[in-house]
Amino acid sequence: MRNPRSLALLALVLLGLLGPGRAGAEEPALAVFNFGSKGGVSADQVDALSDALVNELKGLGHLQVLGRSTIQSMLKLEEDRLRAAACGEASCMAEIGGALGVRWIVVGNVSQFEGVYLLNLQVLDAEKVLVAAGVSTQVEGGLEDLLAALPRSARELVQAAAAPMGLGDWTRELIDEDPWFELQAHADLFGGMWSGRRAELNETLDARGDMDGDRAGVGLRFGVRLARLHLVFVQIDWLQEHWRWGFCPLSAPAQPGSPHVPVTVPCDPSLRWRAETDLNMIRALLGYRFAYPVLDWLLPFAELGVGLHYYLPYERTLRDQSQDPPAERSFAFQPDGGLRLALMVGLGAQVILYDPLFLTFSYFWDAPIQAASSSSAMVGVGLRL
Fold first, then answer.
1. Residue 304 per-residue DSSP state
2. Higher pLDDT residue, 222 or 132?
3. What are the start and end residues of each CATH 3.40.50.10070 domain in the chain?
């Protein structure tokens, strides 16, 4: 591997690749060697990982990056003389880097231990013949998870090598810490009844009610991220619903000529007494959300919540016009005792405006179990913390 003719040929080819203008550029040059495998990963897979690392480093835009596969194809030398396995010592690689005219060399290896991959990356200083920086990453899952972890590892490596390489302040923004929490304020709009039975007002009265389709409200949500795509949250809302009620009158005249002798008569709830009432409701939920990033700023999601609906009691005085003088009675409006178990299923999308600020747009089906079901749209604004 230390043949002087081979090293000289490498230097000449590199000068041709970089060109006279680029050789003297201010951007540091990196040569990326093929990864080594320490078990559990094939040669083709580690070659693909090294090529992916080259692409990630090039994508940063502040470095001149030469991939090992490019060197191989340009030089047409024996493959085993260009593999890191044939030159595993830092001094040997530093000698190659000096012949290439590249001070900084990136090397790496990957191994697998019972479903966990260990990815090691290092930056070598060819002038000082030492390791300038290094990072190690443990990845659980399959090869797709290892590939997904490579971009962050590449950024961590460049950030770790920023000081010895003199890369400047641009490396400080390479790593964005994943937010662990979300705080969201939202508004429920266009809510209405889907289907279900009427709600009972009071067991002792022949009274029934229906929500006529109007619902609006506001709420807060606090979420904790379990993993990159998973969030659990608690949510509390204040909602106002418009209800219509029908009652049987307490009494009716026994005959037209005797208005002051009332007797109880059966009636249909929809005929005699009517009332319209705005009921306030508190909803508390514990939920789970799965969000998958289609773009860096767009995360469609599905969510599921379980909780309670509690209707706040509301009193109203009604008059029975069938009597003379009209009879009055106060009623407490509270459907089915006020407390219901509820299930929420929703679909929506989170839009990252400017991290950490985001907007959410969703539509959910909110079903009090064994009672009337409803749905509404929800628009929210929040922060990722």
1. E
2. 222
3. 4-173
Q: Report the CATH fold assignment for 4-173.
A: Rossmann fold (3.40.50)
Q: Which two tokens stand for residue 73?
A: 């194809």
Q: pLDDT for 333-382, tens place per residue?
A: 777 767 888 889 999 999 988 878 999 999 988 877 656 677 889 999 99
Tokens of 227: 């993993």
Evaluate whether 361 touches 351 at the Cβ level (below 8 Å): yes
> What does the DSSP assignment read for 195-264?
E-PPEES-TTS-EEEEEEEEEEEEEEEEEEESSSSEEEEEEEEEEEEEEEEEE--S-EESSTT-TT-EE-
Reported confidence tier of residue 277, pLDDT bands at 50, 70, 90: confident
Tokens of 192: 């209405």
Residue 265 has pLDDT above 90, yes or no: no
What radius of gyration do the chain's Cα atoms show?
35
In terms of Cβ atoms closer than 10 Å to its own Cβ (0-12, 13-18, 19+), residue 26 is exposed
Q: Look at residue 168 and give its three-state secondary structure.
A: coil
Could you say which of 2.60.40.420, 2.40.160.20, 3.30.2350.10, 2.40.30.10 is the CATH number of the domain covering 181-384?
2.40.160.20
pLDDT tens column, 146-168: 888 888 888 888 888 888 888 87
Find which of 9-13, 202-206, 315-319, 380-384 is predicted with most confidence, using mean pLDDT: 380-384
In one-letter notation, the amino acid at residue 66 is L
Q: Are strands 327-333 and 339-354 parallel, antiparallel or unpaired?
A: unpaired
Phi/psi of residue 292, nearest 5 degrees: -115, 120
21 vs 23: CA distance, rounded Å: 6
Q: Where would I find the beta strands (DSSP E) of the chain?
A: 29-32, 36-37, 64-67, 104-113, 116-125, 130-140, 181-195, 199-200, 207-225, 230-247, 252-253, 262-263, 273-291, 298-311, 314-320, 327-333, 339-354, 357-368, 373-384
Residues 6+ apart with CB under 8 A from 12: none
204 burial (CB, 10 Å; 0-12 / 13-18 / 19+) is exposed
